[in-house]
Design goal:
The structure holds two protein chains of two kinds.
Chain A: H1 5-9, H2 12-39, H3 42-45, H4 49-58, H5 74-78, H6 83-102, H7 109-129, H8 149-157, H9 164-167, H10 184-194, H11 202-206
Chain B: E1 2-4, H1 9-12, E2 22-24, H2 31-51, H3 74-81, H4 83-90, H5 93-97, H6 101-105, E3 115-117, E4 120-122, H7 128-132, H8 136-143, H9 150-157, H10 159-162, H11 169-179, H12 224-228, H13 231-234, H14 244-250, H15 252-260, H16 283-287, E5 306-307, E6 314-321, E7 326-330, E8 341-343, E9 349-356, H17 358-369, H18 375-409, H19 421-442, H20 446-486
Antiparallel strand pairs in B: 1-2, 3-4, 5-6, 6-7, 6-9, 8-9
Classes of the chains: A mainly alpha, B alpha+beta.
């Protein structure tokens, strides 16, 4: 019995390797799914104290306590949909972990607040780049109504090429102005006052 | 008959930028009147030249300065999101001229209160400086006026009552809503909520300019009528501090307005008393309005000869600095000279452009009266007003102030304000009742002058103030103070005849 080229290739070892590889692959994907899921939760994110600080305003926001009861967790907004995209986001996000360990002491509320604007700008850029994809997981533009009829009309007629983030920012975390009008010096003064720091001391705090 | 005349600069100390004093005097004026009036008219005209143009100065900028392209699309949303203000704007003169949202609200990203909104950089607050971009005449007049100084006055004169030692809800919802807030822009570009919203007329804006045009010209319709009718002023000018709503409403002027509102031509482009309307004068008419030959002004205190809201009234000169800033100056002190360097109200030094004496200021205001009243009538009414103020001063204001000063000097009162009943009584005496009496006389409300005014001043003085002084200082010192400051042995003047209303017999009327 002559064997075809293909059959010749599939030796027992190869077959075993294929099965083992498939199982491992499926296992890896399942692991990613589980990992993404786990690492998108509020509990996971706030296991770093620095994230607990940014989560506090979130817990007072409508995204945490909406009338509908549909709560958006950290990952629902900040991690893309789909296992590979989500994994990529988490991979990129690992730089924050690096910064947490080797960078400034973000666990200090003052230092955290001083660095917040850049984090907010980066997050907004990310939302814009993704065309607010994570917003649209829950919010369907055609379905937006609101308590005033104008809300529905505006969302239908005036949104044009706008992305959700273009209008809707400063919804969840501490208020940070737009990059265009942000003034570092004034922000630092505000944080200095808020935390009873010496005037002018904020700048030195920012660089570890 | 056109007349060229030259008033005495020594008396007036006015700037003479044009070097000409041409006044238009109507042909109907006879020669006798003319000789008396030409000086007055010249004074008036010089002042109006110095202090600005017409009340509704035309915007001289080219229309290419407004109608921003990006601003045209604001309305797409705002017609839906805030149809109230969109409609007000649409129906306004701004709407008709094509001045759009962004023309007024556009901001420089470097401005403290700049914010991103729908891709544009805007500011919520449109300050007088912003309005002044087009309305430059009004801006210049308004910037030096007493209205822009209201916050500073409040903070300096009554710091305890206004609680400037810490912002309080009573200040931000009460005092500041008329006097203005010092708008605080936080480090994140937002406006501190205890300082905004605020349309107080002495508001200090993030750009450093003072005032709020919308205090009178409500946004977003900026109606002329709303600013011209008394309600535009009496929202703030009412109550103890400035009882003008009550006083005006009770006066003949106010009653005429109430019954002739539809004949006031309030929406007219030009609003010259006697020409565009004649049914009644409003606050604007006398304090800032135009009359034939007299230009209107957005400096609302310009025509006021007296300071009425003080423990003792004084006549006041108005010092006008070269940069447009102004300062009130008590007439009892030597007036500084034109051209001199002089400290401004904020302590910085400015060069004096002109000094308007109380006499000049009075002349400008009475110039408006003449559209309806004869000169003799006007002069007599003003004389009665002056007499009441002087009576208040000599009988109550000055003695009470001197007694208070003596008590502080003798350490019989603590320096802490309003911690003793006598201090509150003194405040009620001159501020609550004394102010009402003087405003009543200024604007011819007999009831406010007497029953709500001097009558209460008198009662407060004799029934509360002096007995409390006695309680604080004892009989001996009090008697000495009364002798020194009231020139009598007892605290109340004795009436020579019996008072029928006091314990009058049964069965008799007051006439018997």
């Amino acid at each position: 019995m002559s064997k075809s080229g293909f059959s010749r290739l599939i030796t027992r070892h190869v077959l075993f390797a294929l099965i083992a590889g498939s199982v491992a692959g499926i296992g890896f994907v399942l692991f990613l799914i589980e990992f993404d899921h786990l690492s998108s939760t509020e509990a996971f994110c706030t296991s770093c104290h620095s994230m607990e600080l940014v989560a506090q305003p979130y817990r007072e926001s409508t995204h945490y306590l909406p009338a509908s009861g549909v709560r958006a967790s950290c990952g629902d907004c900040h991690v893309s949909e789909g296992v590979f995209a989500a994994s990529w986001d988490h991979f990129l996000g690992a730089k924050d972990l690096f910064a947490q360990v080797f960078g400034p002491d973000y666990d200090d509320p003052a230092i955290n607040a001083l660095h917040l604007p850049e984090a907010a700008f980066a997050a907004r850029r990310w939302f814009r780049k993704k065309d607010s994809a994570t917003c649209k997981r829950c919010h369907v533009q055609e379905a937006i109504s609101g308590s005033r009829p104008a809300t529905q009309t505006i969302h239908r007629e005036e949104t044009g090429n706008k992305s959700c983030i273009d209008c809707h920012y400063n919804l969840v975390h501490r208020f940070v102005p737009d990059e265009k009008t942000f003034k570092r010096e004034r922000w630092n003064q505000m944080i200095e006052q808020e935390f009873g720091m010496e005037p002018g001391s904020a700048e030195s705090l920012m660089t570890p | 008959m056109p007349v060229i005349s030259r008033p005495s600069p020594g008396k007036l100390q006015l700037a003479r930028p044009l070097g000409i004093w041409i006044t238009g005097v109507t042909a109907s004026m006879n020669s006798r009147n003319f000789s008396k009036l030409h000086y007055l008219v010249a004074v008036v005209f010089c002042l109006t030249l110095s202090f600005g143009q017409t009340q509704a100065a035309k915007v001289s900028l080219d229309p290419s300065n407004w109608g921003s392209e990006a601003g045209a699309s604001c309305l797409d949303c705002h017609r839906k999101a805030s149809p109230g203000i969109a409609t007000q704007w649409h129906d306004s003169a701004h709407g008709a001229a094509g001045v759009n949202c962004l023309d007024c609200h556009r901001a420089d990203p470097a401005d403290d209160d700049a914010m991103e909104h729908e891709g544009e950089v805007i500011a919520i607050i449109v300050s007088p400086k912003d309005c002044g971009h087009c309305h430059s005449t009004e801006f210049k007049q308004q910037q030096g006026s007493v209205h822009t100084d209201t916050l500073a006055r409040m903070e300096h004169l009554i710091p305890t009552l206004t609680g400037t030692r810490g912002n309080s809800p009573a200040v931000s919802t009460g005092c500041s809503q008329c006097h203005g807030s010092r708008v605080e822009v936080r480090g994140d570009g937002t406006l501190a909520p205890d300082t905004w919203p605020n349309s107080g007329i002495g508001r200090i804006n993030p750009d450093g300019s003072k005032g709020s045009c919308s205090a009178c010209h409500n946004r977003h319709g900026f109606s002329r009528a709303a600013a011209r009718e008394p309600g535009g002023c009496t929202g703030c000018h009412s109550g103890a501090d400035s009882p003008d709503r009550e006083v005006y409403a009770a006066s003949s002027h106010g009653r005429l307005f109430a019954s002739n509102k539809d004949r006031m031509n309030l929406d007219s482009d030009q609003w010259v008393a006697g020409r565009d309307y004649a049914a009644a004068p409003t606050c604007v008419t006398c304090h800032m309005g135009a009359a034939p030959g007299l230009k209107g002004t957005h400096d609302v205190g310009l025509r006021e000869a007296w300071a009425l809201n003080t423990p003792v009234s004084e006549k006041q000169s108005l010092i006008v600095f070269k940069d447009g800033d102004k300062r009130e100056w008590p007439a009892s002190r030597n007036p500084p000279r034109r051209g001199a360097d002089f400290p401004k109200a904020d302590g910085t030094i400015g060069k004096i452009k002109a000094v308007a004496s109380p006499k000049t200021r009075r002349k400008i205001m009475t110039r408006v009266c003449l559209e309806c009243h004869g000169k003799g009538f006007t002069t007599a009414a003003m004389r009665s007003f002056d007499a009441l103020v002087k009576q208040y001063n000599t009988q109550y204001g000055e003695p009470a102030r001197a007694i208070m000063q003596a008590l502080y000097e003798k350490n019989l009162l603590t320096p802490l304000p309003f911690d003793e009943k006598l201090e509150t009584t003194y405040w009620e005496l001159w501020h609550d009742h004394g102010t009402r009496a003087r405003h009543g006389a200024a604007m011819q409300s007999p009831n406010d002058t007497w029953w709500e005014g001097i009558h209460r001043v008198n009662r407060t003085f004799h029934d509360h103030f002096l007995p409390q002084v006695r309680g604080v200082a004892g009989d001996e010192i009090t008697e000495a103070l009364i002798r020194e400051h009231l020139g009598q042995d007892t605290e109340t003047g004795q009436s020579s005849s019996t008072e029928p209303f006091l314990g009058y017999g049964e069965g008799k009327t007051g006439h018997e």
